[in-house]
Amino acid sequence: MRKDFPHLGFFLFFLSVWSSLSTGMAMAKNETIPVNVGVVLDFNISLGRIGMSCISMALSEFYASHGNYKTRLVLKTRDSRRDVVGAAAAALDLIQNEEVQAILGPGSSPQANFVIGLGEKAQVPIISFSATSPSLSSLRSQYFIRATLNDSTQVPAITAIFQAFEWREAVLIYVDNEYGDGIVPYLTDALQVINVRLTYRSVISPVASDDQISEELYKLMAKQTRVFIVHMFTPLGSRLFAKADEIGMMGEGYVWILTDGLTDLLTTLSPTDINSMQGVLGVKPYVPSTKDVQSFRVRWKRKFQQDYPLDETSEPNIFGLWAYDAACALAMAVEKVGTVNFSFQKSNTSIKISTDLDTIGVSQIGPDLLQSLLSTKFKGLSGDFQIFDGQLHSTAFQIVNVIGKGERGVGFWTPKNGIVRNLSFIDTNSNTYSTSKDNIGAIVWPGEPTYVPKGWVLPVNENKLRIGVPVKDGFSEFVKVTWDANNNKTQVTGYCIDVFDAVMNSLPYAVPYEYIPFGTPDGKPLGNYNDLIYQVLLKKYDAVVGDTTIVANRSRYVDFTLPYTESGVSMIVPIKDNKSKSAWTFLKPLTWDLWMTSAFFFVFIGFVIWVLEHRINEDFRGPPSHQAGTIFWFSFSTMVFAHKERIVSNLARVVMIIWCFVVLILTQSYTASLTSMLTVQQLQPTVTDINELRAKGYYIGYQQGSFVVGFLKRMNFDESKFRIYDSPEELADLLSKGSANGGIAAAFDEIPYMKLFISQHCSKYTMVQPTYKFDGFAFAFPRGSPMVPDVSRAVLNVTEGDQMIKIEKEWFGKTNSCSDDNESSLSSNNISLDSFWGLFLITGLTSVLALIIVLAMFLHKHRDVVTGEDSVSTKIKTLATLFDEKDLSFHTFRLPDQPYSGCIEPMPSVTNFSPRPSTFSTRTNNIPFSGEQGTSSSERGGRSSTTPVWQSLPAIVPTVELANSNQERTIIPTSTSH
Asked: How far is the C-alpha of 713 from the C-alpha of 697, rounded, in Å?
C-alpha cells in the first residue's frame, strides 16, 4: 500500500492543476467588466420605489437576453430623502466615492437642478425619467438627459380641451417649486392665444398644512372662475383634493383638469384619494398596451409585492416604464463605448482650503458615453426611445376622466389631428386639426350634472349682478328711470331694458340681477356715458345696460357684447319744398346727356330714312332745300307720330318700327317725369354736404352725454358752433329755428335716435348721407368677463327671432311707411341716359346695318362705274349723280295696269295725291323708255336721234288722274299726234 502513495499524490496534484486551469479558462471566457452607475431616488415614496424596481428589473432582464455583453452595470443606490440638499449630497458621494459613470435620477425637478451642475462638472450623464420641468432645459447642460417628456408638451392638449368646451377663464393651482414654476409661462401664453384668461394663480407650498390649503381654496371659491388646472405631484395633490371635497368644491359647476404629473400617478393613490377626485379630467402621455407592456406589468407586480409588501400600488405608471427604458438605454450605451478605462481623473488643486466640489474628479469616458446615449435608438416599453434635443418627444396624449375606482379614457390628442375619439380611426393623410367636443367621450363631471359646466358662476358672496343704467331726460323710449320718492324705489323701463331682459332669459342658466341708476336721488345724471362705463372698471357695477355705443376708447375699460342695434352716425337736417316754378322746368325731366343723345338720333334717323327712300320714294325727292326740310320734318314729326310721308322700303320700315318704339318710351317717360315735377311736392334737404356746414359756419347739434361730440371734433368742426339738446322736442325746436336764429342747421346723432326722431317728424326732417360707421348699442361687462361670450350668443338668438320685432313695435311703433314716403319724396325725378342707352344702341346698330345694305346693293348695281378706269373724283361724281336719280326698276314707278314688258317701264299713275312738282307734269312727250339702266336716254345723257323713237312704236295713250279738292278723279287723255 505504501508503494502506491507516491502515484496517488501525483495523481491528486495533476487533478488539482487541471482543475485550476479549467476554472481559470472558464473565468477568462465569461469575464465581464463592471461599470458603476448611481441611482438617486426618494425611496420613501411610491414614485421612487416604482422607479427602483423597474430599473433593477430592466438590467436583470436585459443582461439575461444579452449574455454576450462584456459590460455590466452595477447599481449604487442613494436615498435623496425628498430633499434637494440630500439629492445633491447623494450625487456628490456617488461621483467622488463610487466613481459612477452615470446617474439615474433624481426623481424631481428641484433636486435635478443642482445635480445637473455636478454632472456637468464631472462629465457624468444625469439621466432623469421624472424631472419634467421645462426650466431645466434652460440650464443648457449637455450632460442632462431627460428620459421623459417636457411638461410644456402637454400644454397644447390642455388648451384643446378649453377650446372644445369654450371656457374663457381658468385658475392655475401649482406647487411652489421648480416643477410648478416651469409650466407657468408656457401655459399662460398658450391660453392667451385662444383668448382664455388666467384670472388667478394659486401657489401652494410643498410643505403647506391642511389649514393653509383650505384657506387658499376658500379664496378660490369666492371667485367667479370654476375651471382649475392643477399642476403638482402627490401627496400634495391628493391632500388638495381631499380638502376641496371637504369644503364643497367638487360639486356641480366645478371643472378640475390635472397635468400629467398627477394624472400619471392616479394608479398609486388610495381608494380614499380617488373617491375625492370624482369627475376630474386629466391628460397623460399615451402608451399603447402592447403584449410586452402587459407581460411586464404582470412580472413587475409580482416583484414589487415581494420587495415592498406594504405598498398598495397595483401597477407601474409611465414613469416606471421610462425608468425601465432609461436603464436599458444606458446599458446599450455603455456596451457601445467598449471595455475602456472606466476611471476618473482626479482634480489637482493648489487651494489650501478646498471643498469636496473642488476635488471632484472627471470621468474619462463621459463624452463618449454621452454621445453613445444620444445615438441610442430602440423600441422600448413606453414606445420608440430616442433622444431629441436632450429629451424624449411624445406623439399623443390621452384624456382621462376619474370615475369610480380609477380612470377611464375619453379621448386622445395628437399634434397633427387635435382631439380624436380613437387613434385607430385617424386618417394619416388628413391634416385637419379638430377641437370639437364631439370627439370626446361621455364625461362624468364633479357632482354628476347633466350639462357641461359653463366654467364660471356668480361669486358666492354676491346675490345679484349690479347693472348700471344711464339717467337721461330725453329719448325715454330707449331707457327711462322713474323715481318713487315715497317708497325710495326706482323703476327702469325702455327698449334697451326689454332687450337685456330677453337676452338674460334666453341664457341656459339663471343669472339674478338688479338695475341701479347712475344718477342722484333727485333724478339727475351723475355723469356722461363714458363716466358710466368707467364705473365698471372701478367695480361699482358688474355691467352697464342702456343705449351705450361700442367705441374704441371705452373698450379699454370694458368688454362689449355683440351689438343689438344697427350702427352708424348720421346727419339730420330740415327739408324744404323744392317744387320748381321756373320757365325752363320742361327741360328738367331729362338730363343734358339724354337731351343731346335724343336730338342727335332724331336727325340721324331722318337722314337714314332719306337715304333709304330717296331713289324709290317721290316723297323724299325734290330740290335740295325741300329734301333737307323733309329730313328734319320727318324725324321730329315722329315724336308726336305726325309724319305723313310714305315709307316704301322694307329696310326703312324696320328702322322706323324700332325708332317709333324708342320715341314712345321716351315721350311717355318724359311726360311722367314732368307731371311729377309739376304736381308732386319736391322735398329736398336744406344741407346735403358736411363740408357745407364747416365752410358756412353753421351751428350744429348733438345729444347731451353722447360720444358724438368727440366725433365732431375729429371732423374739425368749430367747438363754438356746438349746441346741445336733451330730447326730441328740443332737437325739433333747434332745427326749426335755423342756424341764424339761435338754432342749428343740422344735428349729428346715432341712427336709432335719428329713426325715432324722423318717425315723429317725417314731413319736416330727413337723414342725409353719408353714414359714419360705428358699432351700435351693446351691453358692457368687465374686461375678461366669462359672461360676454354667452350673452353675445344670446343677443344673436334674440335679434334673429320674432321677439326683437315685438320689442321694437312696442316702443317705436310702425315707422317704416313714414320713412319710405320721405325717402321717395327725396328721390330724383330726372331721367338719365343710363336708363335708355340700350334702346339707343339697338336703334343705332339697326340704322347703320340698313345703310350698309343699301349702299352695298347700290354699288353692286353700278359696279361698272366702280370698276371703271375713271379717276376717283369722277367715279364719286358719277355715283352721286346716279344716286340722285330715280330707281325706275322699283315697283313704285310702274303703271298699275301695264305689266313689265322688258323694254318699256310703265309710267306710274298718280292717284289720290295732291299735285307736287315732283309727281305731276304737263309734259306728255317725255314718256320714259328703258335704256341701259332702265331709264330714258335723255336722262342718261345718251345719244339723240332726229327721228323720235315713238314714231316707230305703237301709239300709247297714257292717262293722268288728277285729284281735285273734292277727291274727284279727272281723266285727261294725251294726244298722240303733233
From this structure: 14
- Report the chain's C-alpha Rg in angstroms: 53
Give the phi and the psi of residue 806 in degrees, each rounded to 5.
Answer: -65, -40
DSSP 346: P
| Residue in 220, 173, 165, 229 with CA at minimum distance from that of residue 201 | 173
636 alpha-carbon distance from chain centroid: 60
For residue 430, give the C-alpha cell.
388628413
- Give the angle 75-80-84 at the CA atoms, nearest 5°: 135
Q: Is 105 exposed, middle or buried (0-12, 13-18, 19+ CB in 10 A)?
A: buried
Distance CA 296, CA 42 (A): 23
Alpha carbons 241 and 221: distance in angstroms, whole number: 14
Q: Indicate the residue type of 656.
A: M
Give the C-alpha separation, 321 to 289, whole Å: 12
Cβ atoms of residues 39 and 77 within 8 Å: yes
- Above 50 in pLDDT, residue 353? no
Which residues, other chains included, contact 861 with Cβ-Cβ below 8 Å and sequence gap of 6+? none
Residues 6+ apart with CB under 8 A from 246: 214
Examine residue 948 and say whether the peptide bond preceding it is cis (omega within 30 degrees of 0): no
**Which of residues 261 and 685 earns the better pLDDT score?**
261
Q: DSSP characters for 654-683?
A: HHHHHHHHHHHHHHHHHHHHHHHHHHS--E
pLDDT at residue 895 in the model: 54
Helix 837-861 vs helix 872-884: angle between axes, to the nearest 10 degrees? Answer: 100
* 761: phi then psi, degrees, rounded to nearest 5: -140, 50
Residue 69 has pLDDT above 50, yes or no: yes
Distance CA 434, CA 420 (A): 7
Amino acid 432: pLDDT: 85
Beta pairing partners, 419: 413
Q: CA-CA distances (angstroms) from residue 323 to 146, 516, 884?
A: 11, 63, 116
In angstroms, the CA 769 to CA 569 distance is: 10
d(CA 930, CA 901): 10
> Cα–Cα distance between 330 and 105 in angstroms, integer?
13
- What rounded mean pLDDT belongs to the chain? 80
Measured N-to-C along each axis, helices 318-337 and 46-65 cross at an angle, to the nearest 10 degrees, of 40
- Per DSSP bridges, beta strands 558-560 and 780-782 are antiparallel
Residues 446/279, Cβ–Cβ less than 8 Å? yes
CA 575 and chain centroid, separation: 42
Instruction: Give the contacts of 965 (CB within 8 A, at least 6 positions apart).
Output: none
